[in-house]
Amino acid sequence: MSVHNVTAEAETFTCNAYLAEGERTVLVDAGSMPGVVDAVANYVDDVDAVALTHQHGDHVAELDAVLDAYDAELLCYGDHQRRTRKLEDGDTLTIGDEEFEAVYSPGHADDHLAFVSDSTIFSGDVVVYSDGAFDDGSFGRTDTAGQSREREIESIRRILNRLPAGVEHMYAGHGDEFHGDVRAVVERALERAERREPKYPEE
């Protein structure tokens, strides 16, 4: 499965939007980068579906443009007028060439999902490799209205419980992708979240 971060060259704030090529070409999150449709077109002629980790603006601002350009299905947990299929915790979906399980993982966002296969996790914002606050294992911010550190901690634990031993590829909503011992990265993120200290003390 080939995975491309199509927002990697963004000059404005956006999430990482990942295009997974394979049996089923899927864009994981649409991002907020103007021109994301053209960035996708550099790799493929068609997109079968967009799978959302959650619906914060930096993940969905360009969603309508992508759906219109590719007539793609929309798979997500939260309500959306263009949703084709609601994903629930434990549902499976094909991304690229692999079968993924949707893991409901609120805390950073009430509608958050992570997608886990035998080799790969698209973790959205619930847990990331690096984000400026921590390197080598960090977690989504939980300091604004509607967010919860306790639910975030529960979600990271749930991901660990459902993470197959062979997962070696981590594609998070922000920061760098990671290839290696993903479980160790997630465990470090959990440890840091469990300290219950402000993620950004200066704010």
Show the helix and strand layout.
Elements: E1 2-5, E2 18-21, E3 26-28, H1 36-41, E4 49-51, H2 57-60, H3 63-70, E5 73-76, E6 85-86, E7 92-95, E8 98-104, E9 113-116, E10 120-124, E11 127-128, E12 138-139, H4 149-162, E13 169-172, E14 178-179, H5 182-194
Parallel strand pairs: 3-4, 4-5, 5-6, 10-13
Antiparallel strand pairs: 1-2, 2-3, 7-8, 8-9, 9-10, 11-12, 13-14
Inertia-based shape: globular
CATH top-level class: Alpha Beta
Structural class: alpha/beta
Widest sheet, order of strands: 1-2-3-4-5-6
**Low-pLDDT segments:** none
Q: Specify the oligomeric state.
A: single chain
Describe the structure.
With about 200 residues, the protein is of the alpha/beta class. It has one domain: Ribonuclease Z/Hydroxyacylglutathione hydrolase-like (Metallo-beta-lactamase, Chain A), CATH 3.60.15.10. It is built from five helices and 14 strands. A six-stranded mixed beta sheet has the order 1-2-3-4-5-6, covered by helices on one side. The protein has a six-stranded mixed beta sheet with strand order 7-8-9-10-13-14. The chain has a two-stranded antiparallel ribbon with strand order 11-12. Helix 4 runs antiparallel to helix 5. The longest helix has 14 residues. The termini are far apart. The mean pLDDT is about 95.
Summarize the structure.
This protein is an alpha/beta fold and 203 residues long. It has helices at residues 36-41, 57-60, 63-70, 149-162, 182-194, and strands at residues 2-5, 18-21, 26-28, 49-51, 73-76, 85-86, 92-95, 98-104, 113-116, 120-124, 127-128, 138-139, 169-172, 178-179. α4 (149-162) packs antiparallel against α5.
